[in-house]
Design brief:
seven-stranded mixed sheet; alpha/beta; binds zinc ion; 3'-tRNA processing endoribonuclease activity
């Protein structure tokens, strides 16, 4: 499942880079978008590795990139952050060890982050598909408690948290689950999937109609014998709560911004991290599409432009900034030029299936 195949990976990476260079030179279009469909399979079952499974933002298909999802593999144990469209196929193509799935971490409950959570649970379930057979946690936001002021609840209950999301998935697929447990001998799915909602510190003044992301010290939300996961609120109006994560492993630290504007809590989460996976938006792409000023304001008010990611990475002192959850299509140079003015470290525009080893 996770054999080391460095030769193939090296070859793939080399051919991808060459293809991207040729394409950019020939057409002037986005190398990063073109490369987004490529994958590199297999990670070693020792050490810590980050795999940018899917790198696209939003519930929209605008490029070959798959929906947002990032894997962290630590000594052959699998942790998955967000489950956007395509995550199941991307995990399979990267040959990640779903039989050693330890946790799924959800940053927030926007659909582009959880669209494929049902398939993640149902397509990796049991020894029949070489999937999970042991319990694992689905860590994510608790219910918001209320919609933002003035919002109309079209669907009720209006603000489910991670526990309800998971339970509702199991309820929706009850027939399949019940059939397969008896018919195929699969382990009881409801025993294996364990939702855990993040509880904010009692003294923290935050809420859906007040402060979405006050500055805070990260709180521990998950731990096992290999990793410790910390979370902090990030600023992604109008969503509450929206989290970023810090994953500490024996080999180093990975931080993930989640969906956010440029925010001090991301700096705290990413302090001295080896890798920071940060979201970004390329606003000129939307301006050229003729999107309304309101839509552009929404994007700039809830996401981070490339220069902002550079400032965060510089303040946090991270070793490697990886841009993902890319909103808009641009060339690698267009994404990274504003970053380099703010941050002198290593920066990469992630491709789908790209592996970053600590
Ligand atoms: Zn998103
Ligand atoms: Zn979002």
């Amino acid at each position: 499942m996770s054999e080391l195949r460095p030769d193939r990976r090296t070859v793939l990476a080399g051919s991808m880079a060459a293809a991207g260079t040729l394409l950019t030179a020939a057409t002037g279009t986005s190398a990063s978008a073109a490369e987004g469909a490529a994958t590199s399979a297999g990670v070693p079952d020792t050490g810590t590795h980050v795999v940018t499974l899917g790198t696209a933002a939003g519930p929209a298909v605008r490029s070959p990139r798959q929906g947002i999802a990032t894997a962290v593999v630590v000594d052959g144990n699998l942790y998955v952050v967000d489950t956007g469209l395509g995550v199941v196929r991307q995990i399979a193509e990267a040959e990640l060890p779903t039989n050693r799935l330890r946790a799924i971490l959800l940053t927030h409950l926007h659909s582009d982050h959880i669209a494929e959570l049902p398939a993640m649970l149902l397509y990796n379930w049991g020894p029949q598909v070489d999937g999970f057979t042991e319990p694992f946690e689905v860590v994510g936001p608790a219910g918001a408690g209320a919609l933002p002021k003035g919002y109309r609840p079209a669907v009720s209950p209006p603000t489910p948290g991670t526990r309800e999301v998971v339970n509702n998935i199991l309820d929706s697929y009850a027939y399949d689950v019940n059939i397969r447990i008896s018919d195929e001998g699969r382990p009881p799915l409801d025993d294996l999937v364990r939702p855990r909602e993040i509880q904010l510190p009692g003294g923290l003044s935050a809420g859906p109609r007040s402060r979405l992301a006050p500055e805070m010290e990260p709180i521990e939300v998950y731990s096992d014998d290999r990793v410790r996961v910390l979370a902090a609120l990030v600023n992604h109006p109008p969503v509450f709560p929206s989290y970023g994560y810090r994953i500490e492993t024996p080999d180093g630290v990975i931080a993930l911004s989640g969906d956010t504007t440029e925010h001090p809590n991301v700096v705290t989460l990413a302090r001295d991290a080896d890798v920071l996976v940060h979201e970004s938006v390329y606003l000129d792409y939307y301006r050229k599409l003729g999107k309304s000023a309101d839509f552009i304001d929404h994007l700039s008010g809830s996401h981070t432009d490339p220069a902002g990611t550079g400032r965060v990475a510089a303040k946090a002192g991270v070793g490697h900034l990886v841009l993902s959850h890319l909103a808009g299509v641009a060339t690698d140079e267009q994404w990274t030029a504003p970053v380099r003015k703010k941050y002198g470290g290593r920066v990469t525009v992630a491709n789908d299936g790209q592996v970053f080893s600590l």
